[in-house]
Amino acid sequence: MSVFGRRRIGILAALAISVGMAGPAVAASCGNNAGGFNNWVGQFKQEAAARGVSRKTLDSAFRSARYATKTISLDRNQRSFRYSLDQFMQKRGANAIISKGRRLKQSNAGLFRAIEQRYGVPAGPLLAIWGMETGFGSFLGNQHTVSAVATLAYDCRRSAFFTTQLYALLELIQRGWISPDFRGAAHGEIGQTQFLPANVLKYGVSGDGNRSVNLKGKADALASTANFLRAHGWRRGGGYQPGQANFRAIQGWNAAGVYQKAIAIIAAEIDK
């Protein structure tokens, strides 16, 4: 029996259903504006309860949930990935990330050494991702996470994918890894390196020796990021530029080609 108790099995089973080959069987009807959101939440809660999610978890999670207009706006206008590589690097402040990344590599040498010993991932790619995602933790997001993920699950564009994320988020709330009123990025990303909820469950590990996973902490976030890369094919000692063995693992982190190349370039400069 899991240390999280019998109630956990219901949510994990629901998540297993939602990540199956055909995707989740979503009973609640999706929509493309705020008009049907509250009705959708009611339908979703009934569906989730039938799959074993506790009423306590559902009530606490959705207590403050609202249609996330900003999330929808940002989801419709992701313009930065349309830039050239040079434009993207300049827009994201690549030189500043490299400079600070080198300093953080030195000041956190023990942490990065331990992570590389365990996962085979050197400091550069982790620092590049950390810097690109949150400016090394300077901004983790200010959006109500349940609202953001529920809105995207309701929205017809990617309803199945974000319904999976919503079930995962409920599991994180029930485990006590995040609070029902947790705030993060606009698409529900969590912590220093911006994991989606399902990836927290799948790849989240403790980097500081305790049993929980707190991705607001740098040790857990960086160890979890290394674990993600290893799970996506990272080979110890291999190169990570385009065409090299470990670039595929970087591609697993983000689907945008310009982002992937920027990570590889920034990482190499930090690792010099």
Automatic annotation (TrEMBL):
<feature type="domain" description="Transglycosylase SLT">
    <location>
        <begin position="37"/>
        <end position="240"/>
    </location>
</feature>
<protein>
    <submittedName>
        <fullName>Lytic murein transglycosylase</fullName>
    </submittedName>
</protein>
<keyword id="KW-0732">Signal</keyword>
<dbReference type="InterPro" id="IPR031304">
    <property type="entry name" value="SLT_2"/>
</dbReference>
<dbReference type="InterPro" id="IPR043426">
    <property type="entry name" value="MltB-like"/>
</dbReference>
<feature type="signal peptide">
    <location>
        <begin position="1"/>
        <end position="27"/>
    </location>
</feature>
<dbReference type="Pfam" id="PF13406">
    <property type="entry name" value="SLT_2"/>
</dbReference>
